[in-house]
Amino acid sequence: MFDEWLRAYKDRLLAGVAGRLGLVSPNQVTVLAFLVGAAAVAAIALGWRPLALALWLLNRVLDGLDGTMARLHGRSSDFGAYLDILLDFAVYAAVPVALALVAPAPGATFAALVLMASFYLNAASWMYLAALLERRGEHAGATRVVMPAGLVAGTETIVLYSAAILLPRQLGVICWVMAGLVFAGVMQRLLWAKRRL
User: How do residues 82-130 score in pLDDT, each as one tens digit?
Assistant: First the structure.
């Protein structure tokens, strides 16, 4: 929901670092972000929550840095964008799985499963809609995949996952809230598509 508004600010914030990394491939940063995210998942599973939070936040910074680097150095590519979303989704899926594995609160595991189901529907709702819009030529000339926004995107995921890492006893509530927002975003896109397709 806030990603479009924050994108320019994020690019300005990361431009200094991105400018110094001209010899590093954005795809290398994407893979590094994934490895840091995997380390965050391992830290969650081991109960090292402060480390998990630090690694999760570093994963998100690196995820923002790869795109900024690609744009700044003229190295954007379709493969890079594809690799980025694929590895992002791997981390997005693994974090709640790890949280559910060590959940101290009863019912949190089921809430995490519902959250995962919401992600599945959300991915289908925006990816296929983006493909249809592209096929119809509605975003001709766009430099990235364009789709109608949902209620939960990167910014909201950062905040809610951070809360879930820090507040394990509230995991169930956080998962239910996030799943509800994700499902609402799916419905929002469905209604948008019904009116426009």
Answer: 999 999 999 999 999 999 999 877 789 999 999 999 999 988 888 888 7
Nearest CA to 95 out of 192, 30, 175, 194 is that of: 175
Task: Indicate the fold that domain 3-196 takes in CATH.
Answer: Four Helix Bundle (Hemerythrin (Met), subunit A) (1.20.120)
User: Do 34 and 87 touch, CB atoms closer than 8 A?
Assistant: yes
Buried b (16+ CB within 10 A) or exposed e, 118-141: bbebbbebbeebbeebeeeeeeee
Which pTM does this prediction carry? 0.83
CB burial of residue 197 (10 Å; 0-12, 13-18, 19+): exposed
Contacts of 70 (CB under 8 A, 6+ apart): 26, 76, 77, 80
Residue 1 · residue 152 · CB < 8 Å: yes
What residue ranges do the domains of the chain occupy? 3-196
Alpha-carbon gap, residue 137 to 32, rounded angstroms: 34
